[in-house]
Amino acid sequence: MKNRHFARACAPACFVLLTLSVLTILMTQKAAADPFTDLQARLPKQINGWTADPADRIFDPISIFSYINGGAEVYKAYNMKHCFSRRYSNPDEPAIILDIFDMGTSQDAYGVFTHDTDGEALAVGQDARFRPGWLSFWKHRFFVSIYMEEESPAAEKAVKELGRQVAALIPAKGTRPRLVLKLPAQGLDPENIRYLHHPILLNYHYYLADENILNISQQTDAALADYRRGQEKARLLLVEYPDSEIAARSLSNFLKHYLPDADKSGVALLENGKWAAARLNKKWLAVVLEADSRKFAENLLKKVLQNPS
Fold this sequence. Notes:
six-stranded antiparallel sheet; nine-stranded antiparallel sheet; disordered N terminus; 30% strand; Protein Transport Mog1p, Chain A; 15 strands; alpha+beta; single chain
C-alpha cells in the first residue's frame, strides 16, 4: 500500500520531468537541425509571378556530374556536400533556376564563389555579383546561383528579389579563410582573389605545370591575388602547408621545375620581361608569379611573410 501511495504521489512530478525531458530533446533536435534541410523548407514557392515547379532536385558529389556539364569538378574540388535545385516557371517569361550548394564550411563557400567574380557588385548575401542573366553570392556555408534561361527585364528583377529572399533565410554570415586575411592590404585588388586547395583550380587561374609541383592538396590552403602599386602590377600566390617540411620540399620543387634560373635569393627575370620570386617562412610559401619590377616582387614577399603564424 505504501508503494502504491508513493507511486501516486510521484506521478505528477514524474510527468513534469518527462515533459521537460521531451521538450529538451525537441529543442536540441531543432537547434541541431541541418541548416541545408531547414533552408530548403523555408524557400519561397512564388516570386514576382514565378511559381516553383512541383519537384525539386537534390544532388550529391557524384550525381552533380549529371547536372552540371563540365563544371562539376569545381564544386567537388571545394568539397561540395549537396546541391539543391529548384525551377521557377512563368507562362509569359523565361524560367528561373535556383541552385544552392552546401559546401560544408564558409571557407569553401567563399572559395567556390571566388572561382568567378566577374560582374556588378550587389548588396545581396556576401559579395554578390550580377552578370547578364546570372546572380551569385555566398553566405555562411552556402554558395547560391540564380540564373534565367533567357534574359528579360522582369526575369532580372525576379532573380534579384529571389536572391534577397534566399539570403535573408540564411541567418549566419560566413568568415573568409584565415589565409586570405593574411594577404597584404596595400595594393590588393579585392575582386581578384582566388582561394583554393586543388592544383586543377590553380592551373585554371594561372597555369604552372601539368604536375602538382607545389603539392597543393586538401591539406593546404592557397590564395592567388592581384596587386597594383602605381603603374606596376604583380600576381602573388600564398600557400600554407600542414608543416614546414612539405613547404620546404614544395619550394625546392618549384625552383627546380618552374624557376631554374632563380638566383640565391629566389628571384628570376622571366622571358616576358616580368620578375618572379619565391620565398619560405616555416610552413608558409609565398610566390610572386609575375611582377613588373624586381623591387616590387621582393617587397611583396617581405610584406606577406613578415609575420607568419
